[in-house]
Q: What sequence folds into this?
């Protein structure tokens, strides 16, 4: 009986819509990564800096419908990020692994995201892409994790992988992890809600 | 993994919820007090209040939000009412004598509201029965928030030809952030077009003419129904449809080149969407702070009414009451020829007076001789 329940839950979740927020500094490759996930007929050959934000809708292989909000990384649009935190289930944080100069900025912005009241008490999985791995002077994912002190993130599941938005290398692996984590988080939330409602009765 | 089968939708704009909360008077809407609008916040609760006109005998709660006043009965779930600030014509407080409880005088809030050409009178009476509440300003938050509401018009409503631009710069509201400033925007409202600038902020879109800055429009996102780029007889144009409450205008603007127009369009639609999720109605009020301020003010007033000896300085006005004594002695000195050694003294230019004069002898200041009439001796040093 319990098994059946779990199965039913899983099927229900498959119909659920998940919202992913794509964050990162300007020129880190957010739109290029989103572009790579699109059907080949809809891909654009030239990616221009995003203004404000763009919303893209996908179906993953496993039948999950995913809404990706591609936020602009330009300085003046970064304060738009926080308005989307409330409704998102997962975050993709894109880092330009060859841009060592701005690692401090990456760290600052990441801290702001993590400390935001809409996120700090929720379990929201965060996927880090060390993008532009094909560049000569790019840092490895381990080094990026150390530079950003990712080990200090204790309350949220996170994962880092190197990627290249041009060739598409490493992108699939990361997203697979993210979807799995979002499912876990949703299941947990549902169970928590269930037990809460039982208690209230 | 994520190869899409089909994109479901593009960058579609959600239609903003029409803002009715502050513009209507409503009665007995189910669960009214639990369904607040996004961005609407309850700024103060006032307990033990009775709606003496509509529901006498029911004790209830008054909620002061940033858009309206809500009263709901705590006895019967279905009785409630909502008064938008825009519909309020007149408010004051009075002392009423409650009919039931042995004619105890208690404070009441009187509101006159006009909606759909119907006049509504409301009387919210304090039924706590506490005599101490009679003298306290229990309805102060209602008045404060209502005043704030009236002063923050620009956050919520379309304004044409307002004094919003000074010396080519937009006067920024509190909590407003400017996102971009676009020059060379043609307003296509007239046939020849008007050249001006856009200022895009997180609350509104402002256009003003370069030649005449009083020719302007301040359009909050709240009043924008739809945004689109459309072909017009002047070429591609940004077309903004304002909401019904914003006059239902269709505004056309032309920006060259087309890339810039598209960028502006994307920026505006992003900000419009974000605003729809987190509207800012511009009213910042903290009831506890206000109460503390009120207490401090009343304490100060109480102190001021008590005369304390140390607070006053004793002034000896005897000298000032007479005609300048120093001048007299100076004149006397001159007559007696007390300083014959100097003889005829050469005049010098005095900067303070602006003309030449006899140099002043020792022991005198210009001020002593100039102030002939008794004054408080506070003129130039």
A:
């Amino acid at each position: 009986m319990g098994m059946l329940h779990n199965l039913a839950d899983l099927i229900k979740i498959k119909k659920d819509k998940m919202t992913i927020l794509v964050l990162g500094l300007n020129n880190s490759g957010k739109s290029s990564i989103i572009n790579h996930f699109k059907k080949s007929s809809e891909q654009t050959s030239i990616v221009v800096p995003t203004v404000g934000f763009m919303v893209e809708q996908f179906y993953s292989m496993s039948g999950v419908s995913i809404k990706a909000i591609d936020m602009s990384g330009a300085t003046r649009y970064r304060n738009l990020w926080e308005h989307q935190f409330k409704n998102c289930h997962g975050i993709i944080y894109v880092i330009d692994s060859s841009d060592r100069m701005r690692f401090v900025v990456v760290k600052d912005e990441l801290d702001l995201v993590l400390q935001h009241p809409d996120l700090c008490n929720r379990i929201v999985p965060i996927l880090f892409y060390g993008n532009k791995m094909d560049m000569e002077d790019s840092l490895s994912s381990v080094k990026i994790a150390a530079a950003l002190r990712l080990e200090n993130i204790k309350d949220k599941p996170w994962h880092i992988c190197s990627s290249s938005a041009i060739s598409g290398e490493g992108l699939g692996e990361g997203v697979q992890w993210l979807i799995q984590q979002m499912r876990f988080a949703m299941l947990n939330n549902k169970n928590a809600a269930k037990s809460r409602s039982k208690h209230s009765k | 993994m994520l190869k899409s089968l089909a994109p479901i939708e593009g960058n579609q704009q959600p239609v903003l919820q029409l803002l009715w909360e502050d513009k209507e008077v409503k009665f007995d809407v189910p669960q009214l007090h639990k369904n607040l609008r996004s961005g609407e916040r309850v700024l103060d609760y006032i307990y033990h209040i009775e709606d003496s006109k509509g529901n006498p005998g029911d004790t209830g709660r008054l909620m002061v939000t940033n858009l309206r006043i809500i009263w709901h009965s705590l006895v019967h779930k279905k009785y409630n009412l909502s008064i938008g600030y825009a519909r309020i014509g007149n408010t004051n407080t009075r002392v009423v004598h409650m009919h039931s409880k042995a004619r105890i005088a208690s404070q009441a809030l009187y509101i006159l509201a006009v909606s759909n050409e119907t006049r509504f009178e409301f009387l919210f009476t304090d039924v706590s029965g506490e005599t101490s509440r009679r003298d306290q300003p229990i309805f102060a938050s209602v008045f404060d928030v209502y005043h704030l509401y009236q002063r923050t018009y620009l956050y919520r409503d379309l304004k044409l030809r307002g004094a919003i631009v000074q010396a080519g710069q937009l006067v920024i509201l509190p909590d407003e952030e400017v996102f971009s400033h676009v020059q060379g925007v043609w307003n296509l409202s007239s046939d020849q077009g008007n050249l001006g600038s856009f200022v895009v902020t997180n609350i509104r879109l402002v256009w003003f003419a370069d030649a005449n800055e009083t020719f302007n429009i301040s359009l909050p996102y709240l009043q924008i129904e739809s945004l689109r780029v459309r072909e017009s007889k002047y070429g591609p144009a940004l077309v903004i449809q304002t909401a019904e409450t914003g006059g239902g205008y269709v505004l056309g603007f032309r920006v060259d080149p087309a890339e810039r127009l598209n960028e502006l369009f994307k920026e505006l639609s992003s900000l419009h969407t974000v605003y729809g999720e987190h509207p800012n109605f511009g009213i910042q009020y903290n009831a506890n702070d206000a109460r503390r301020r009120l207490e401090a003010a009343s304490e100060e007033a109480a102190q001021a009414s008590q005369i304390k000896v140390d607070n006053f300085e004793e002034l000896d006005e005897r000298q000032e009451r007479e005609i300048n004594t120093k001048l007299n002695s100076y004149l006397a000195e001159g007559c007696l020829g007390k300083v014959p050694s100097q003889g005829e003294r050469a005049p010098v230019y005095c900067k303070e007076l602006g003309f030449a004069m006899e140099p002043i002898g020792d022991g005198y200041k210009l001020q002593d001789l100039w102030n002939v009439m008794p004054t408080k001796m506070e003129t130039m040093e």
Residues 183 and 197 of chain B are 4 Å apart (CA to CA). DSSP finds seven helices and 20 strands in chain B. The interface with chain A takes residues 1-12, 177, 179-180, 202, 263, 266-267, 269-271, 273-274, 277-278 of chain B (CB under 8 Å).
